Amino acid sequence: MLAADRLQLDRVSTAERVSEVLRTRIMVGDLPPGTRLSEEAIGTALGVSRNTLREAFRLLTHERLLVHELNRGVFVRTLTKDDVTDLYRLRKVVECGALRYAEVTDEDLRRVQAVVDEAEAAAARSDWVAVGTQNLRFHQALCELAGSPRVVDMMRGILAELRLVFHVMGDPRRFHEPYIKRNQEILTALAEQGRERAEQMLAQYLDDAEQQLTQAYL
């Protein structure tokens, strides 16, 4: 392998790690839509070169999480109503499909239950942003039940994009609180009634959430 090739591979690998950091920051709500990302500030904080950071920005732009505006810089994307409709169409395909092929053990159920418990704890301290984050992690955990690394990777991007949609809701408690109970109901159905019933409940859940979010754009 040529030395130049090795340097390029190292840079791309680092860029992927940087993009994971930024993707996570978006998913937990630290970087809301419209946030301008400073190359200098982020590069200094993460200890990476400008070229590596730009490669990370490129990766996240491809994932529709960032947008480059000419002569202005790089910003966290602001999603449209059409984005929401498309995003939920994809969620229904991926998440319901993941449940359809899930192989569920008691250990799996305990792991997903822990996410629901974290959401309840966040609600108890009125941290509704954290409730939203745990809601996203619940859906990630459900998809992990399918045992497909490709599904898991796809969901990371989907859920980070979904967090950008959550910001349109003026009252995060009103939006997120009811879904804690619904998450528990889906998990209980999965444990007691099987995958088919859980999938049906999830499909209705996603329809309801999509309707709420698209109405927020009116």
Q: CATH fold name of the largest domain, please? A: Four Helix Bundle (Hemerythrin (Met), subunit A)
Inertia-based shape: globular
Terminal Cα separation, in Å?
Answer: 56 Å
Oligomer classification: single chain
- Any guess at the CATH architecture of the largest domain? Up-down Bundle
Which blocks of ≥5 consecutive residues have pLDDT under 50? 1-9
Widest β-sheet, arrangement of strands: 1-3-2
Secondary structural class = mainly alpha
- Give the CATH class of the largest domain: Mainly Alpha
Largest sheet: 3 strands, antiparallel
CATH superfamily of the largest domain: GntR ligand-binding domain-like
Question: What is the beta-strand fraction?
Answer: under 5%
In DSSP terms (H or I, runs of 4 or more residues), the helix count works out at: 9
Q: What letter string, H or E per element, gives the SSE order?
A: HEHHEEHHHHHH
Q: What number is the mean pLDDT?
A: 91
User: What's the structural domain tally?
Assistant: 2
Q: Count the strands? A: 3
- What Rg do the Cα atoms give? 19 Å
What fraction, in percent, of the residue positions are helical?
A: over 70%
Task: Write the SSE topology.
Blueprint: H1 3-27, E1 36-37, H2 39-46, H3 50-62, E2 66-69, E3 73-76, H4 81-100, H5 106-124, H6 128-144, H7 149-166, H8 172-192, H9 195-215
Antiparallel strand pairs: 1-3, 2-3
Can you walk me through this structure?
- This protein has 218 residues and is mainly α.
- It folds into two domains: 3-76, Arc Repressor Mutant, subunit A (Orthogonal Bundle); 81-215, GntR ligand-binding domain-like (Four Helix Bundle (Hemerythrin (Met), subunit A)).
- It contains nine helices and three strands, in the order H-E-H-H-E-E-H-H-H-H-H-H.
- A three-stranded antiparallel sheet has the order 1-3-2.
- Strand 2 (66-69) and strand 3 form a beta hairpin.
- Helix 4 packs across helix 6 (128-144), helix 5 (106-124) runs antiparallel to helix 8 and helix 6 packs parallel to helix 8 (172-192).
